[in-house]
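Aim 2, interim progress. The first record below pairs a target sequence with its structure tokens.
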Amino acid sequence: MAQLAVVCSLSSARAVRRFVRQTDRAIRAGRLLPGQVVDLTEPADRLDVSPARLRGGLRDLEAEGLVLAGGNRRVTVAPLNTRELGDIFALRRAFEPDMLSRACASGPLSSFTDFSRLSAGHLVADWCDDQVFIALRRAYLDFVMSAVSGIELSVADDLTSCTERASRIGFEAVRLCSASDIALVNAANEALIEACRDRSPVGVQARCRLFLALIEDLCWHGVRAVRSKTG
């Protein structure tokens, strides 16, 4: 019986971790919007764990500013941090073009190939698809990894994380009303990848600045989309 209890406990722990990962992805992708309440009762019953245990598993997301406390049976998706959005992009503009240009000498290109394979056959790379978005993010981080310090890489990853929610919500909002604008974002991304493949520091810097400007615009579209839905 003791062994069965251990197995059940491990199974429950895996179920909670899986739920937390799925919630994390849904929030970052904009499938769960700021202000939306996540009731833990149904998933707790389905996973055969207590709502309080699921709530405990979400503490890390609360610490990251993705959810707000709402008792043991619910959490609320945290609002977008619009006060810092402009500052974050100022940092990204100061940081990322130089970082990518330094990587031109030796950065690996294989992850760009993996991303292209995932998005092949589509008119635009779908940022709402977790697999595609993660592959794109991974491609740029892999490209610069050998050319920057661990601290720089961590900062780059954190800055991208800070703007992921707004950019992906904005991507979906713009795609619904203006497919041509999404095509411009896709073209800018492809041009930046091509500059990386050509190992052109000057081209990378110019195209990175343009791409960042378009991402920032997507973020503000995301902010406005959330405001229109939440009143």
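The second target in this work package is listed in the same format:
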Amino acid sequence: MKIAITGHSKGIGKACADLFESEGHEIVGLSRSNGFDIQQVNMCAMKIVPCDMFINNAYLGTSQSQLFEIVCNHWRGQYKTIVNIGSRAQYEHNRSGSIYSADKVHLKRTAEYVAFKEGIENKKVRVININPGWVDTDMANLNLAPDNSKPAQENMMSAEYIADMVKWCTDMPHDTEIFDLSLWKTTTD
């Protein structure tokens, strides 16, 4: 299978690329490290459209939503899979007021609209939204919660764990769509 992954050189994207590549899949990586900017959505879409699966991981404003919409519309009527990497932050957007949270809400709403505009019974493109909580990545170290806090490293999930969840979802039969999977660590005392 040919799998396109945005942000494939770090964090969740790299963990997904490593996992799927280790199973013999061809990876089409789209990251700044190899000259791709997801703000150039049409250029990125041209590389993604010939693939079988798209892991929409890289975040930069609403570019993630725009890229999803373009690819989904190109793939309409074909048996393909799109995995959007969202965030727990979408559930906290009213409280935090952050642009990141608003952009992740936008991605979810775009996925809901585009994925279902033809009706579920006519849909062939499978859309999976994975919404992790804190993941131990460079991005988590750059972005602090609204109160300037973040969990201790032992309370974060690994990027490899999220990649395993992506694989679990995509290993389901194509007629099974896990539209939303939200997961995060909770404290146990």
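The beta strands are 2-6, 26-30, 53-56, 81-85, 126-132, 180-183. This observation will shape the mutagenesis plan for the next reporting period.
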